[in-house]
Amino acid sequence: MASTAPQTGTAMPAEWRDFFTLTKPRVMTLVIFTAICGVLAAPGSIHPVLGFTAILAIAMGAGGSAVLNMWWEADIDAGMKRTMNRPLPGGRMQREDARDFGIFLSGVSVLLMGVAIGWLAAALLLLAIIYYAVIYTMWLKPRTPQNIVIGGGAGAFPPLIGWVAVTGEVTAMPILLFAIIFFWTPPHFWALALFVEADYAKVGIPMMPVVAGEKPTRRQIWWYTVLLAPIAIAPWVIGGTSWLYGMTAVTLSLLFAWLAWPVGSRMRAAEGDKMLPEKKLFKFSIYYLFALFAALVADRVAAYQGWIA
Ligand code: HEM
Ligand SMILES: CC(C)=CCC/C(C)=C/CC/C(C)=C/COP(=O)(O)OP(=O)(O)O
């Protein structure tokens, strides 16, 4: 397999780098972070080696399903500026190699989870992989502008799986963690879709701004942000966390709403502003989720140490 990958000065050989790129490593940092938080925030204890193994399995499953997404969408990716240099449309890799790599990573991840941790967590991981690679990528994404709302559920699995890996059961708290990411995904992605809209239109993907138009998309970003707030605060309300997480969730939710309002009400960037409101919201959405899940773990550590009641 001849590689024409640009040399970026990293130590990794070019072909390895392409395989690594297929796993969408930048997006997966947050996916894996939420999984780690699911493991650390769950009540009960897990041997550190097993905890690490559970996180490794989730990371491999998430990466494997991302590879299958890139394999399936190679032609679509070739038509968009944002994605045209990915390893497959860039012509640096055989399609079959990507497919086999994705199946291998996904298969090993489920087996590893099942054998080392338990088959409930393994079944949830398999469901997440199928959700992202098949239900979202192959079925919903090319067919409906609600693709993100329903398909976004795939990215909501990692903290749930991490939690279940520790406790062995699905309870209200891990379901709430799932719901937080589920309702976070539409504002996260539609904010981005508003400023890369033309690209999706070009390749015929029915993203909300392309099909329904800008105004309804902006309105829905606002309403999903409003809906997200009580769900983000709910772990505190049901007594699953202390005020430390609760206050952080309230503050982050207010900030999210403050940034979503100009997007929802279609306020233009003011003179002197360096960034469009939707770009600001997209960036903040990422910090929001990092901070919220970090707060969940901080809350647990503080309670464990007896620093808070
Ligand atoms: C269907 C659901 C989602 C869609 C369609 C979506 C789409 C995107 C897109 C197109 C980007 C731009 C960057 C790129 O091209 O790689 C992006 C960035 C990002 N997404 Fe999402 N996303 C979704 C869900 C999620 C979830 C569930 C997470 C994590 C929990 C996540 C985390 C991130 C992060 C961290 C970035 C920034 C990556 C960077 O620094 O370049 N996304 N997302
Ligand atoms: C454990 C497990 C299987 C987790 C899955 C994690 C997951 C579904 C993450 C979704 C995030 C993601 C890469 C969205 C990109 O959407 P896209 O693929 O439509 O974006 P693109 O246009 O950049 O390809």
Automatic annotation (TrEMBL):
Domain of life: Bacteria
Pathway involvement of the protein, from the record: Porphyrin-containing compound metabolism; heme O biosynthesis; heme O from protoheme: step 1/1
Catalysed reactions, as listed in the record: heme b + (2E,6E)-farnesyl diphosphate + H2O = Fe(II)-heme o + diphosphate
Membrane spanning residue stretches: 27-46, 52-72, 101-134, 175-200, 221-238, 244-264, 285-307
Membrane topology: Multi-pass membrane protein
Signal peptide bounds: none
Note: Carbon 2 of the heme B porphyrin ring is defined according to the Fischer nomenclature.
NCBIfam families (alphabetical): cyoE_ctaB, PRK04375.1-2
Protein name as it appears in the record: Protoheme IX farnesyltransferase
Natural source organism: Erythrobacter dokdonensis DSW-74
Organism lineage: Bacteria, Pseudomonadati, Pseudomonadota, Alphaproteobacteria, Sphingomonadales
Name of encoding gene: ctaB
